[in-house]
């Protein structure tokens, strides 16, 4: 198993922290991992993306240029990363914010209304967890449980009830596989 | 085994330096290496060390010169433009035989360039960078674990042979996170013997002078020649490289640092498609592993140098091959990222289409 993942969206959507979390979860599950944030002159509302590798073998390059899975959380990210997905790969689209339709026919496309689901749970900030839940369920590269266990390692200052909310969001996301 | 920890390359380099006995750091902020001074600022006081946020890069390198003269394990770090500013101080440290340690987390250049990872400082790092006849021991890590462990070797070589040493990383290695493994036992600097040249309180010992000049006729020539003897010893004893799947290879990729990681991906891709490819990775950039390349060139048909710069290391490879094998270059300057697909295409062109050799090779 070798999953190169690209996560992309607005600064503030939790793109970078979702990537960090995924790598931490993969490592705790005994997998080989790497995480690389694109750290341009980004700010809240600008664009941000990161590369994550979760693999059962040695990670070659941490820079994911042809992802097995791309998770696009906003409109500009779809145009930027849809073409790069490996044939046969997976594209997870945040259908709450992305209005354009993907055009690729050689990849699997999963529409997840991340913001809507997060809103239903009572906190829009957990939308990145909805996307990660969908990723875990759709690829099997990692378990929702592993991500849940990694949460307190990455978000050291979060209150238990907020961790609980994040776990709920992961589980709701996993229903979209 | 201890619990695995996910660490940023910059943090790993900092922690690695401290575990190697570093107790003084002076620096000035610049992206993409800001996690180094940030980490040092809270971690050094925990181990009884000192951190100084200097008012400029020039100040920082000269503070490190001063600390180095007392025999303490000390460090500064910066990224490309800041390393340029430090060159005068590095030259002075080389001239005074001071074992200081420098981290360069390269970004795009020349000039202000950009803040993404690049490899454009190869010439600066391996040719001295500052003025005068000198060498710097230069190591090029390609993983967070190597970022964590190379400061140990740098301090060891610096103190044994008395010269500045450098870890030449890049913005990608600095920013990326991987599980990290510290392989060396932690060094308690209070257990190290004070070098016989170190300045400090003089309790009736012989006078010691640290200086980078000698105004007597022929004085500097003697100093440089004495230093060259140590450089020859380093070349003989401290050259490090890594080889992957070269035994049956028709093409040897030659790359260091993050480029070498992309080359591993390209090598796997090429092997799946039936191309016999291996990788030669210089780990010390000075001393450059020339002798091993000379050996390899006797049977290897093609060498393809891959670097995120306009073509700098290729000149060292060219000197080693000396026309015995075909030399090719895939270069991408300006902090643009090289992909495995691109490298594969370059190899395919060489084997199937007889791509032109590196122009300066003729």
Strand order of the largest sheet of chain A: 2-3-1-4-5-6
Tally of structural domains of chain A: 1
**What do the pLDDT scores of chain B average to?**
96
Total DSSP E strands of chain A: 6
Structural class of chain A: alpha/beta
Which overall shape of chain B is indicated by the principal axes computed on the Cα atoms?
globular
Question: Low-confidence parts of chain A, pLDDT < 50 over ≥5 residues?
Answer: none
Rg of chain A, Å, rounded:
15 Å
Q: What quaternary form is this?
A: heterodimer
Within the largest sheet of chain B, what's the order of strands?
3-2-4-5-7-6-12
Which ranges of chain B are low-confidence, i.e. pLDDT below 50, for 5 or more consecutive residues?
none
CATH topology of chain A: Pyruvate-ferredoxin Oxidoreductase, domain 3
SSE ordering of chain B: EHEHEHEHHEHEHEHEHEEHEEHEHEH
The assigned CATH architecture of chain A is 3-Layer(aba) Sandwich
Q: Helix and strand string of chain A, N-terminal first?
A: EHEEEHEEHHHH
- What is the overall number of helices of chain B? 13
Write a short abstract of this structure.
The complex is a heterodimer of chains A (177) and B (362). Chain A has 177 residues and is α/β, with parallel strands linked by helices.
Provide a descriptive summary of the structure in words.
The complex is a heterodimer of chains A (177) and B (362). With 177 residues, chain A is an alpha/beta fold. Chain A has a single domain (2-174), classed as Pyruvate-ferredoxin oxidoreductase, PFOR, domain III (Pyruvate-ferredoxin Oxidoreductase, domain 3, 3-Layer(aba) Sandwich). Chain A contains 6 helices and 6 strands. Chain A has a 6-stranded mixed beta sheet with strand order 2-3-1-4-5-6, sandwiched between helices. In chain A, helix 3 crosses helix 4. Chain B has a 7-stranded mixed beta sheet with strand order 3-2-4-5-7-6-12, with helices on both faces. A 5-stranded mixed beta sheet of chain B has the order 9-11-10-13-14, sandwiched between helices. In chain B, strands 1-8 form a two-stranded antiparallel ribbon. The model of chain B has no long low-confidence stretch (mean pLDDT 96). The radius of gyration of chain B is 21 Å and the shape is globular. Chain B is an alpha/beta fold and 362 residues long. At the A-B interface, helix 1 and strand 2 of A face helix 8, strand 8 and helix 10 of B.
């Amino acid at each position: 198993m070798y999953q190169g993942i690209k996560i992309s969206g607005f600064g503030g959507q939790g793109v970078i922290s979702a990537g960090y979390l995924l790598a931490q979860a993969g490592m705790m599950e005994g997998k080989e991992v790497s995480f690389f944030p694109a750290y341009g002159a980004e700010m809240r509302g600008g664009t941000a993306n990161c590369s994550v590798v979760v693999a059962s073998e040695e990670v070659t390059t941490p820079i994911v240029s042809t992802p097995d899975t791309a998770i696009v959380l906003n409109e500009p990210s779809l145009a930027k990363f849809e073409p790069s997905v490996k044939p046969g790969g997976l594209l997870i689209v945040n259908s709450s914010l992305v209005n354009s339709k993907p055009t690729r026919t050689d990849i699997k496309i999963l529409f997840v209304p991340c913001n809507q689901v997060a809103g239903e749970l009572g906190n829009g900030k957990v939308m990145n967890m909805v996307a990660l839940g969908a990723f875990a369920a759709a690829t099997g590269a990692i378990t929702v449980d592993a991500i849940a266990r990694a949460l307190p390692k990455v978000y050291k200052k979060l209150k238990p009830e907020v961790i609980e909310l994040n776990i709920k969001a992961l589980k709701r996301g996993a229903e979209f596989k | 085994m201890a619990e695995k920890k996910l660490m940023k390359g910059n943090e790993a380099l900092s922690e690695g330096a401290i575990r190697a006995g570093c107790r003084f750091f002076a620096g000035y902020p610049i992206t993409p290496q800001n996690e180094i001074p940030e980490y040092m600022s809270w971690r050094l006081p925990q181990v009884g060390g000192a951190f100084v946020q200097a008012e400029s890069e020039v100040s920082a390198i000269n503070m490190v010169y001063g600390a180095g003269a007392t025999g303490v394990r000390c460090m500064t770090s910066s990224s490309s433009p800041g390393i340029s500013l430090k060159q005068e101080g590095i030259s002075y440290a080389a001239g005074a035989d001071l074992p200081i340690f420098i981290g360069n987390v390269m970004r795009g250049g020349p000039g202000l360039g950009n803040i993404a990872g690049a490899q454009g400082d190869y010439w600066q790092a391996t040719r001295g960078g500052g003025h005068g006849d000198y060498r710097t021991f230069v190591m090029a890590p390609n993983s967070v674990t190597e970022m964590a462990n190379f400061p140990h070797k740098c301090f060891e070589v610096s103190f044994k042979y008395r010269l500045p040493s450098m870890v030449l990383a890049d913005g990608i290695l600095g920013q990326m996170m991987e599980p990290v493994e510290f392989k060396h036992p932690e060094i308690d600097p209070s257990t190290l013997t004070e070098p016989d040249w170190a300045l400090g309180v003089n309790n009736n010992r012989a006078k010691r002078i640290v200086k980078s000049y000698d105004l007597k006729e022929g004085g500097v020539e003697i100093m440089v020649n004495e230093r060259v003897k140590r450089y020859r010893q380093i070349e003989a004893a401290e050259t490090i490289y890594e080889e992957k799947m070269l035994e049956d290879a028709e093409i040897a990729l030659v790359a260091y640092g993050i480029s070498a990681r992309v080359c591993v991906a390209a090598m796997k891709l090429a092997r799946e498609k039936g191309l016999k490819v291996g990788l030669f990775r210089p780990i010390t950039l000075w001393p450059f592993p020339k002798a091993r390349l000379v050996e390899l060139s006797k049977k290897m048909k093609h060498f393809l140098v891959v670097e995120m710069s306009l073509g700098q290391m290729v000149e060292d490879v060219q000197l080693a091959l000396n026309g015995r094998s075909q030399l090719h270059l895939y270069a991408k300057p300006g902090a643009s990222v090289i992909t495995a697909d691109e490298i594969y295409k370059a190899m395919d062109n060489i084997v199937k289409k007889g791509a032109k050799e590196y122009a300066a090779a003729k």
